[in-house]
Amino acid sequence: MNVAAFFSASAYNTVCEFLGSNWYAVLGTLGLAFLAVCHIVYAFILTAQNRRARGDERYAVTDRRPEVSWASQNMLVLGLIILIGLFLHLYNFWGHMMFAELAGVSVAHDPADGFAWIQDTFANPVFSILYLVWLCAIWFHLSHGFWSAMQTLGFSGKIWLKRWQMIGIVYVTVLMGVFAFLILSFWLGFAPSYSSAL
Description:
- This protein is mainly alpha-helical.
- Helices cover 75% and strands 0% of the residues.
- Helix 8 packs antiparallel against helix 9 (158-187).
- The longest helix is centred in the N-terminal third of the chain and has 32 residues, at 23-54.
- The radius of gyration is 20 Å and the shape is globular.
């Protein structure tokens, strides 16, 4: 969906209109929100269990073992940055689009005009920088989470662990790279203008 914004405002807005506040989009949003809350709650439970299991000796050794990634040691901090970024994203897009349409709230642009909302949001350097920081945190979170999930599901081992790590890094880098390029292209002004993209 977001890749369409590089090429055509009308194509991007067609997707926005298709989603909008239709029942399937609302249902999907509620489902994602439920899963996100479950993920956050479960992460806090795991963090508390790990701290309890280590007891008073958890700071006795501060050196990180080579197989323990920086992301895994800082998953809670990364998660909090991602949560703050999510609230920012909900404010900038969901609040002005789906919520505004559902609530009948008057906003600066048509709620289905996602291209205008992208232009407005990323024309602001503060929002652009905050989004780029958010994407970095998501990169660390997902690059660890991808292979960690495979390990949890039992699809790992001495040979496949490194492969899953590499697959995860490549996949997440491409994914976050597309989002970062979108932000930079609108921020720095080399994205199509609204009129030329129609």
